[in-house]
Amino acid sequence: MSSPVLSIENLSIDYLAETTVHAVREVSLTLERGEILGLAGESGCGKSTLAYAITRLLKPPARVTSGRVVFSSREGYDVDLSGLAGDDLRAFRWDKIAMVFQGAMNSLNPVLRISEQLEDVYLTHRPELTKAERRIRCGELLERVGVDRNRLRAYPHELSGGMRQRVMIAMALALEPQVLIMDEPTTALDVVVQREILLEITRLRAELGFAVIFITHDLPLLLEISDRIAVMRAGLIVELDDALTLYTKPKHPYTRRLLSSFPSLTGERGGFVRSGDLASVELDETEQTIEAVEMESR
Ligand SMILES: Nc1ncnc2c1ncn2[C@@H]1O[C@H](COP(=O)(O)OP(=O)(O)O)[C@@H](O)[C@H]1O
Ligand SMILES: [Mg+2]
């Protein structure tokens, strides 16, 4: 029996700019407990807008014009996220749903040691812990994401980009959330580091049981790590299927086009070869699609 931890129902979001942009259009999706759901689609298709809406981080001129997002806790209660405000919302965001965004590693405070920044999460959300308990948890947390605990004393600039991003992932996992939303979390990292971090996430997911929405324009990457993949285009989910089916039997022409734009997609799931010139291929295709979408909306 499936039991969703998150249900997105008929969600629409506009940006009320000079002309109204329908960034997300009547999206319905469920995230099952413990699954990795990949969200693919080219730049500008609405992925981040959807992520920000789920976590209630949208700012004007964005406006939710329809729908809702319901969180079903493993403790057996449902919460309509649109009904949360103030402290409830803040507590909820760290505790139940955590996020790692692109470039998150640059949001570490440069003048505070890693230990202080991790401890701060516990200070705010777990005030009952003693100082000694906080220390122990921070050490464990760091090692969980593959960083030696003696790095607690380091300042952010003393760590590599990959390590800083791991620290951000550790921070997101600090309160053992049930959902982790990752929006292009490894895009700024080189391919080897990116891979290591992704393996870490799939391992942690198995260990801790959280569900993940993993967002990227990098479809080959998603095929490797996702249970299911949703393909988004111009604000719509055009296809949603398990990763292997999506790869072997894509139904939507856009999915087929997206797949064919990655010449490195050969072999079985999990055995993809990522070629060095992938980046340039992606970019060309992205530009083409943006052009196509723009033509359509004229
Ligand atoms: N603050 C904003 N004001 C107006 N339009 C925006 C704003 N932010 C995003 N958009 C538009 O919304 C659409 C979706 O953007 P986004 O969610 O960032 O896409 P993605 O994450 O898939 O690249 C794009 O057309 C983008 O130009
Ligand atoms: Mg984005």
From TrEMBL:
Its main location: membrane. Keywords: ATP-binding, Cell inner membrane, Cell membrane, Membrane, Nucleotide-binding, Translocase, Transport. This is Peptide/nickel transport system ATP-binding protein. InterPro entries: AAA+_ATPase, ABC_Ni/Peptide_Import, ABC_transporter-like_ATP-bd, ABC_transporter-like_CS, Oligopep_ABC_C, P-loop_NTPase. The lineage of its organism: Bacteria, Bacillati, Actinomycetota, Actinomycetes, Propionibacteriales. It holds the Pfam family oligo_HPY. SMART domains: AAA. PANTHER family: ATPASE AAA-TYPE CORE DOMAIN-CONTAINING PROTEIN, OLIGOPEPTIDE TRANSPORT ATP-BINDING PROTEIN APPD. It is a peripheral membrane protein.
